[in-house]
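Technical note accompanying the year-one report. For the benefit of new consortium partners, we illustrate the data format agreed upon in the data management plan: each record pairs a sequence with a structure-token string. No post-processing was applied to the example shown here.
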Amino acid sequence: MNELGGKTLSKHLFDIKGEFHKGERIYRVKYGELSQAFKHDNFTLKAFIKQMAQVLHLLSEKRIVHCDLKPDNILINLDQYRSGKPLDLKVIDFGSAYTWDEVGNIGMATPEYMPPEFLSALLYRKGTKTSIEQLNEITNPWSVDIWSLGAIILEIITGVPLWMSLKCRLEVGRKSVFGMGLFAVKGRAYDKILQRQRSVMESLGDILVEYLGPWADREALFDLISHMMEWDPMRRISPEEILQHPYLTQSH
């Protein structure tokens, strides 16, 4: 996908091609320019998080839930970035969005980026539709999208699309390692994705150590992601709180 506003974040991050490795067919993940910038320049990731938090702050003030936030729905134009200016990004595709006061039913979005309360609602409704009002009773206007942003950050850090359930070869530091998407399961079953989400959040610290190494701001980033992907949606950090978080406000 390529639009006037730039290429999608997913296109900037990865180029995935099939290959054979020791007689086994796998997928080789090659990293784009922005992916390399995120890995080697802490300030670029901070700039991305800050701008996304500003977008979500505006949406939450308008009581709008995007409800399908993922790398394919974020456009980034690197021309400004290459000239030393901040990232130029746009959030697109509001086809799944709803307003907080809307009467209706929640629809399906991309499950690997959706929070546990959303997947649970879809999983356990047993043939009946789950209303927006029912979901709103247990969430804040920003809860769904903030979790999704946290998931996107994890995808950036690990270097594999969250949905990739096939074996991939990727570079971590100077090592070639094998992996799959953090929330990827065969068949994209909601219950199995929920299990993966819980497992990942319980071992988040170890995951960040594995992929970030001795990054100076790793502990602050761990704290930020932990609050963004808090299991209880009512306790999930707000966009305004993200903008005030030490990871973004303290220089290192």
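Partners are asked to follow this layout when depositing records. The chain has twelve helices and ten strands.
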